[in-house]
């Protein structure tokens, strides 16, 4: 087996220079310290993205993106197609797990200050990837064309429409018209299977390239402890030691996905009816809940500004600040942590959790 | 300028005094200041009366001159009619209410046939015969505080009718001389009709829906089916074509009421039909006769479909709770539910063969849905087993990876 592997590698090396990749992997190392566990969430998010890609391709074989066929095609998939239910449930559960691990990855990078020089662009590309992943969630939610998705999309796109000057244009761009119709479904399908994957793949390539180029960041506190001799510098080869550990996590994630799909198959609901009344207690996916709840609490007018509009601007500004964090938290460096920014991170997590909980009550 | 102001003031005085005269009502002014509550109450109550709201005054009913402050206002010479006797009340009200020309300016939809209907009623006939205990207009509608029928506080508003009728008809002492039951309202309150009315459905029947309001009369034996059929049209049509139609007529039995009772009309049950001693069929049919055999056939078909539908419902609900997608099977099962409803209606044909025509296709649908439920639960078990196998495989793979890591890391690093 080893001989076959060697021969294959040599064959590839002669044609593509694959040996250099192997050489790179052999020399790539991962720092070991008390926070190393957070390194696995990036790989886990990547693994779930690949699961999304594969199950998404399989769903495409049966899905028909028209208002007349979308619901029925998903229904056919989950009732008639062998293992169709499994593929659909894994796609839905994996989407949610991927967003969860992406958030964990983002916050771990934030608190370990891994965005500091020279990894500013890694952070920015990662943040953009997170937004794209949320875009995947928003666009994919409508595709089964069920009642909840229909009305959630209506509410979601209405929010975009309330932005001054460009709001109307954005609403029509997203919906493909004034209302949520078949044109919206086709458009969201296009975003979900073509536009967003293209952007995600490009950004992912850039993100991974930067990670390989710059290596894993060691937290400032650990760096300082090593220099001061309080801690010993330890490393682990990426290949195969770290990769094998990564694979354990991936296998575990696969097990969790399988269990969720088998025990809690993703609900299909009832077919969307534009003329039906909006169901009671309608709310978006869990990762949008904190924003949804904030907008609900805002009064209709704050001074002379529309409350909802203020909320949207507030979140947009907060997102911009968050993306620009490496350029704002400039004092962070060797052995130094910036308490204000760490506190801001704790506040953001607390805010998201409390407001999501309030929305779920 | 002075001339103009003076002219304006004179005009205002003239108009003001004219207005004061036309609004004067010496009846109320005087009656509210009296000590006798019997005389004060009408004047006080009249403020909320629908007639007052329509612009009428005491004099419009009682006559007299409301502009006159003296006792002459109540002089018969000035048209004062006073308080009518009980026997005169229907004609007293009908002076206006039977006059279409007078009534239509108030509301073109108002009926003007109340008196003629009333005279056909048991109440009207007995009143004519001199029985002052029977109900006349004011006994149901009230007097001096009469409210529109559409007013939820009115005693004749649908939800209040049974109580209004019950004031006399449930009073055993009051009704003693008439020798009729006094438990109608108590029975009615237990009926499905009363429950619907209590639930807010004002179209549900109350006393007047079946007995008539102004022409209140108990429906005769021959007309019961017609009365019920005004709402339950399809049932009445089936009953008319059934063998019971002629048989009941010959035996002098009322139609619908024979099985469903009159006032205590409860939700019917499949158990009413059949050959058992507790069925309504056995109250007339003798054991072993053709009618009872027919009833037994109907009961079996209904029971079989009801059982099959419940079984399919249970299994599909169970599968749905387990997260299985069974919406198509549930949609199809709705056909069996409809068949069961239709079969229960077709019971009124009193022919087993007619009922079977509906229950048989319903059974096919219900059994198919049940099979879909069983298949869904089997699929769920398959998934659970598949999950167990997958998890074991994954655990083995994880254990293998763990051992591999240990093996790699146990070697001395170069």
Give an account of the 3D structure.
The complex is a heterodimer of chains A (361) and B (414). Chain A has 361 residues and is mainly alpha-helical. Chain A has helices at 2-16, 18-27, 40-60, 70-79, 84-111, 120-142, 147-161, 167-175, 182-214, 220-227, 238-263, 289-297, 307-323, 325-328, 339-360; strands spanning 29-32, 234-237, 301-302, 305-306. Chain A is built from 15 helices and four strands. In chain A, a hairpin with a 2-residue loop joins strand 3 (301-302) and strand 4 (305-306). In chain A, helix 5 crosses helix 11, helix 7 (147-161) packs antiparallel against helix 8 (167-175) and helix 12 packs antiparallel against helix 13 (307-323). Chain A is globular. The termini of chain A are far apart. In chain A, 31% of the residues are buried. Chain B is mostly helical and 414 residues long. Among the domains of chain B are: 152-207, no CATH class; 309-347 and 354-410. Chain B is 60% helix and 0% strand. In chain B, helix 20 (290-321) packs antiparallel against helix 21. The N and C termini of chain B lie far apart (123 Å). Chain A binds chain B through residues 75, 78-79, 85-86, 240-241, 244-245, 247-248, 251-252, 254-255, 258-259, 262-265, 267-268, 270, and chain B through 323-325, 327-328, 383-384, 386-387, 390-391, 394-395, 397-398, 401-402, 404-405, 408-409.
Brief characterization of the structure:
By secondary structure, chain A is mainly alpha-helical.
